[in-house]
Amino acid sequence: MINLKDDIQAGVVKKRYILGRRNENEDGVLDIGRYLALDRSSGSHVAIDALKPHAILICGKRGYGKSYTMATLIEEISLLPDNIRQNLSSLVIDTMGIFWTLDRGNDPQKELLQEWNMEPAGFDAEVFVPAGHVDEYRERHIEVTPFSIPVAQLHGYDWCELFSIKTTSPLGVLLVRIIEEMRESNESFSFEDISSRINADDRSDDVTKMAAENYLRTAASWSVFEKDACGISELIRKGRTSVLDVSSIEDKVVRSAVVGIIARDTYNRRLKERRSYERMAMGDEDIEQKMPMVWMFIDEAHLFVPSQGETLASDVLINEWVRQGRQPGLSIIFATQRPAALHPDIISQSDIVICHRLTARDDIEALEAIRPTYMKENIGDAIRKMGLERGIAFVVDDTSESTHLVKVRPRYSWHGGNEPSALNERR
């Protein structure tokens, strides 16, 4: 493993640079790689601050390392000293089903790891999947934990948005009225319970009731919402990494709803926890911090915060996490191969941008539109300097108002995002 302190070569001490941090403290950092010199040799170590909340954007065309770099950050959080790691929790929103391999060592790149004085190693990560899809994973010998969201957690208006139903239509009025009445009891309920209440309703016609039942049957088939939910309270735990695999949720609207619900629940819980943090800082010994600070990683981020239109996750991710997440201690890391398809606020509000190779003009222009004044060259020219080598990244650090060309270190764990080969070789 690369020494995380100063690198001493030929009697010369090379400083480790820490992005996202203003002071000289070297505790609590995520080692992402090394500077890349003009002659393509490796220079000083480069790390990212992990003590404070951050909004980070990782972008790059397919196959050039964005998911790989994201996994590197996940690994680094797991490698933090125990006194720091126990105050953090990592939640990975996995849209492609590729992060379950975190627990397996990176044997295919063993020789590359040796060049970095590293060895293959797996990490403790719990994989959560929708409750109705657990058997599919276990048949493939992938150990997973069932996950579901309480039906009662969504308001009637939320269900109408999920179903694309106007709340002022007879069907929308029926769903909102019945569900809100049931939520007032503060008791859990199922889709069957909602159907029973709808059938007993004497204020709606039969056609509207049958339409409502059809929508509820569709919602039940998603295998995401249940009366007695499981897993949601276990996603955020001190010192742990949780992977929420949403790749089995085919409906993009439902997928964004799940992410939005989890993001809002986490935000609200951290707001309350921040008060406990302040009491502890004031010296109150009777207060214990129950919920850690959260680092949420979202792959294929343009699916949830698109440049055009909105999803059920857009509002909470942009307003609560990106714009206001620093105060409650929330860090968010977006990865996308299409910056042009991403909401511009995600790009402009990110304090660290890690850009791998891009060639599409509109993607480069999307980044160029938010180019900071302290950059001496345009982003397109900086990207061209990276060349064709995978794992090279152009990094913009808004905290120090600086830019860097970095070679990202190899992963300790198995990369599940490699393209499959028709040779079908066992590695």
Automatic annotation (TrEMBL):
Pfam (any one): HerA_C
Residue ranges occupied by any Helicase HerA central domain in the UniProt entry: 32-264
| GO molecular function term, any single one | hydrolase activity
Kindly indicate whether the keyword Cell membrane belongs to this entry: no
Keyword annotations for this protein, in alphabetical order, are: ATP-binding, DNA-binding, Helicase, Hydrolase, Isomerase, Nucleotide-binding
Q: Which reaction does it catalyse?
A: ATP + H2O = ADP + phosphate + H(+); Couples ATP hydrolysis with the unwinding of duplex DNA by translocating in the 3'-5' direction
Q: Which InterPro entries match?
A: HerA-like, HerA_C, HerA_central, P-loop_NTPase
* Residue ranges occupied by any Helicase HerA-like C-terminal domain in the UniProt entry: 290-390
- What domain of life does the UniProt record list for this protein's source? Archaea
The yes or no answer to whether the keyword Nucleotide-binding is present is: yes
Cross-referenced SUPFAM superfamilies: P-loop containing nucleoside triphosphate hydrolases
The family line of this record is:
Belongs to the HerA family.
List the protein's name.
Bipolar DNA helicase
Upper lineage is: Archaea, Methanobacteriati, Methanobacteriota, Stenosarchaea group, Methanomicrobia
